Amino acid sequence: MTRIRITVNGEEREIDVETSRLLVHAIREELGLTGTHVGCLNGDCGACTVLVNGQTVKSCSVLAVSADGAEITTIEGLARDGELHPVQQAFWDEFGFQCGFCLPGTLLVTCELLERNPDPDDAAIDEAINGTLCRCTGYAGIRRAIRRAAERISADRPEPAPSPADR
Amino acid sequence: MITNNFGYHAPPDLDGVVAALAEARGDVVVLGGGTMIIPDLTHGRASADVVVDLSRAGLSGIREEGDEVVVGATTTYTEVLSDDRAAALVPLLRTLSSGITGGPQIRNKGTIGGSAAYANPCSDVPACLVALGARMRLASAQGVREVPAEEFYTGAFATVRRRDEVLAAIVLPRPDGTAGYTKLKLAESSWPIVTAAVVSRPDGSLRVAIGAVAETPRLIDVEPPSAGVDDPAWRDHVRRAVAAAVPEPWSDLLADGAYRMRVAPAIVARSVARALAAGGEETP
């Protein structure tokens, strides 16, 4: 076992892992954060995406020991005080997901995209989500959600969630 | 999950890396970004007794050394894309990095050196390095040697790198000319099926490398088109040049060898057109 120290969603944690432990399994099992999903374990599907030191990576393709000292944001780190992150709210409003399996990855690549490019066009959006496979939506809802999130964040006025009566 | 534990070293510098490699026994894995080798370990396509992780060894970044451009082995595609100076020096590097399949997550983590050393016939990097006339800088406890890219690749997933060596950097002569790059893939998330990287030199000559057509990237002998890239006679010349360089085409799940041979001349023609047009800045 090797002891590693990581900061997860702002909280410092120490865990003991085998050298063979994948980061995605350490996040889910040692840290108990099961919002990060295990999909293909092949670096293709993107369901295991997390931010490591501010950049999206597929955590199935990272050894936990390699992440020693890193700052990690998982999907659990987006909402604050029960309020959805503006990106999450936009996906909710625009039906940017169905089953939700790919959603953690899709949300985190969206956060990274909007950080790098606050006003992405369709080509930039497609490039950002081309490592995140969604087998439900056909991507149209995802594109709309990302555009909506961009508008919201640049307007800097997150709207409250619509009430059930609006739906 | 990976079913066996292994010795793990993440040395803080190149000396530490070569020392760890000199001592390592059994199956030794040099870990760059991990985007290919970690899934291989997970799925049992590779095995490791020792992993030497380059991520803390300070091998990333692009710098000029005299007339040459040195790309540190662990330079990621994202680093290439955010380094405007590097893009100006070697536009082909940016073009290939922008088209890497697998999303920003892979471009953030995958490295130029990792792709180069992994030697997947279908990767973008190897043929581009051959077209650019790159030299592969290999370091070991015995010292440093440099191998031209076209001699580096010995087969599918095979290179001249010894097990005690690490690919520390890739040395590129500063390109004097314009470049074009094209890859054929039939779906957004697909590996390339055929790639062609072309450098058009100021004297009018072309340096053309094709990837994914054979086990290793191949330089092909192509004259510049005198009557445009659609001229049937020139297309025929390209077809013969591909055939001469590829006695045995590569087949995999995506396409068999005969298909690759059929489409390769058209992909070469597109890259030549891009190189001649304005410097091949288009996204592949």
Report on this model:
The complex is a heterodimer of chains A (167) and B (284). Helices cover 32% and strands 15% of the residues of chain A. Chain A is of the alpha+beta class. Chain A folds into 2 domains: 2-77, Ubiquitin-like (UB roll); 86-156, [2Fe-2S]-binding domain (DNA polymerase, domain 1, Orthogonal Bundle). In chain A, a hairpin with a 2-residue loop joins β1 and β2. In chain A, α2 packs across α5 (140-155) and α3 (103-116) crosses α4 (122-129). The termini of chain A are far apart. Chain B folds into 3 domains: 7-53, Uridine Diphospho-n-acetylenolpyruvylglucosamine Reductase, domain 2, CATH 3.30.43; 62-171, Uridine Diphospho-n-acetylenolpyruvylglucosamine Reductase, domain 3 (2-Layer Sandwich); 180-276, CO dehydrogenase flavoprotein, C-terminal domain (Enolase-like, domain 1), CATH 3.30.390. In chain B, 33% of the residues lie in helices and 24% in strands. Chain B has helices spanning 14-23, 37-42, 77-81, 84-89, 91-98, 104-109, 112-118, 125-131, 149-152, 232-245, 257-277; strands spanning 7-9, 28-31, 50-53, 62-65, 68-72, 135-140, 143-148, 153-155, 158-159, 166-173, 178-184, 194-200, 206-211, 218-220. In chain B, the strands form 4 sheets. Chain B has a 5-stranded antiparallel β-sheet with strand order 4-5-10-6-7. Chain B has a 4-stranded antiparallel β-sheet with strand order 11-12-13-14, with helices on both faces. A 3-stranded parallel β-sheet of chain B has the order 1-3-2, covered by helices on one side. Residues 280-284 of chain B have low confidence and may be disordered. At the A-B interface, β4, α3 and α4 of A face α2 and α6 of B.
